[in-house]
TrEMBL record:
GO cellular component: plasma membrane
MF term (GO), any: transmembrane transporter activity
Residues passing through the membrane, by range: 51-71, 83-106, 112-131, 143-163, 169-190, 211-232, 244-264, 276-294, 300-322, 329-352, 364-383
Statement: the UniProt record of this protein carries the keyword Transmembrane: yes
Keyword flag Transcription regulation: no
A Pfam family hit: MFS_1
Gene3D superfamilies for the chain: MFS general substrate transporter like domains (1.20.1250.20)
InterPro entries in alphabetical order: MFS, MFS_dom, MFS_trans_sf, MFS_YcaD-like
Domain called Major facilitator superfamily (MFS) profile: residue spans: 17-386
Protein name, UniProt field: Predicted MFS family arabinose efflux permease
Keyword list, A-Z: Membrane, Transmembrane, Transmembrane helix
Length: 386
């Protein structure tokens, strides 16, 4: 039987909660978009070895993992909206630490805490978005949410050419931005009428058993997305394109991806959602498979843009279907499961694609990812029939 809160959420949108969630996740993605390249560039400029830069980056991943495993305990003790505000404030303080201190040890701790706080924002925002949305609008609002993530990731690196890497100004400005978002979020939460229910670690592992197809969709997204970002620029250089073309390909990937998500969201509210997911997986697979056979640079970039839009759309589909099929603590558990699955999928996408290109040559990279996505597409079709 549904609670009063669930009934209210499904009859009318909780707009203050939706706005707060979109603001928060945009801030999270801006912070991550800034820190990934900026920290590496600053450390490189200080003469820090590549090994130490890599070890420092592990801190963020450890923070993500810790937050995922502790999410159930935290939601049992604290209200989700308070955890989101704490996450925003924590991210702001971590960025301020990057701007204030130069110690590698301090940066490692700050990066761990940044990963922890950012993961809290991301997982709880997903769950809250689905609680606050009526099902008739779930796809469109998930599309706006996905567009906000993409836009934040694309906007974050702009701090580097605008403010440079010296003096910590980029970190400081982003810290102020996150603090303002935390304040705005706190104001919006006064008017909200929904909140995600507490979850548990048991729910997290139960979700993997109950929703294997949704988990597979997120894995496919992580695999294809990171392969596009990390391995495909290398493919372009190895096949005779310039480094400028390889850099442009990443930019081309971001903007169409953001613009496509509201359209995918609209389709999710008008068409069978599973069919939309199958369609996006098929388009991503076909685009990867086509790239080695295209010679015109403009058409290559067009196919690459399709890869970005279609692969991220898998996540928008999975997020929408999470809210359609689950309630209560399982929403938070599903968000945590998505976070873990994306981490595994992205790790597999970058490492396996790179290894396959080393063994089979550059062309094997996009062809192998396209083949893997084709297998996922077939699995989604068979999973629905069963």
């Amino acid at each position: 039987m549904q609670t009063h809160q669930e009934l209210a959420a499904h009859s009318a949108p909780d707009w203050p909660a939706i706005v707060a969630v979109v603001l928060g996740v945009t801030a999270f993605s801006v912070a991550q978009g800034v820190t990934y390249p900026l920290i590496s560039l600053v450390l490189e400029g200080r003469g820090v070895s590549s090994t130490m830069i890599g070890i420092n980056a592990v801190g963020f991943a450890l923070g993500l993992a810790a937050a995922t495993l502790m999410l159930g305990q935290l939601t049992q003790r604290f209200r989700a909206q308070h955890l989101i505000i704490a996450g925003l404030v924590g991210c702001s303080l971590c960025l301020a630490a990057f701007a204030t201190f130069s110690s590698i040890a301090v940066w490692f701790v700050a990066r761990f805490l940044l990963g922890f706080c950012a993961s809290l924002i991301f997982m709880l925002s997903e769950a809250w978005l689905n609680v606050a949305c009526p099902d008739r609008l779930r796809g469109r609002i998930s599309g706006i949410y996905g567009a906000a993530i993409c836009a934040g990731f694309a906007a974050g690196p702009l701090a580097i050419p605008l403010f440079g890497t010296a003096g910590g100004f980029g970190f400081a400005l982003t810290a102020v931005y996150l603090a303002l978002v935390a304040f705005a979020t706190a104001l919006l939460m006064v008017s909200t009428r929904t909140v995600p229910e507490p979850s548990s670690t048991r729910d997290l592992f139960a979700f993997f058993r109950h929703a294997p197809m949704l988990v597979a969709m997120v894995f496919a997204f992580g695999f294809a997305d990171i392969a596009a970002i990390s391995s495909m620029p290398v493919y372009f250089v190895k096949t005779g394109h310039s480094e400028a073309f390889a850099a442009l390909s990443v930019t081309v990937l971001a903007l169409p991806t953001a613009l496509a998500q509201p359209l995918i969201g609209y389709a999710l509210d008008r068409l069978p959602r599973h069919s939309v997911a199958v369609g996006t997986a098929f388009v991503a697979a076909l685009s990867y498979l086509a790239i080695p056979f295209i010679e015109t640079p403009a058409l290559i970039l067009a196919a690459f843009a399709m890869i970005g839009a279609a692969s991220f759309s898998l996540y928008t589909c999975a997020l929408t279907m999470l809210g359609e099929n689950f309630r209560g603590g399982m929403l938070v558990a599903g968000s945590a499961a998505y976070s873990l699955t994306y981490a595994v999928g992205s790790g597999a996408g970058s490492s396996l694609t790179g290894a396959i290109m080393e063994i089979g040559g550059p062309q094997a990279g996009p062809l192998s990812v396209g083949a893997a996505l084709s297998v996922f597409t077939a699995a989604f079709v068979l999973g629905k029939r069963r």
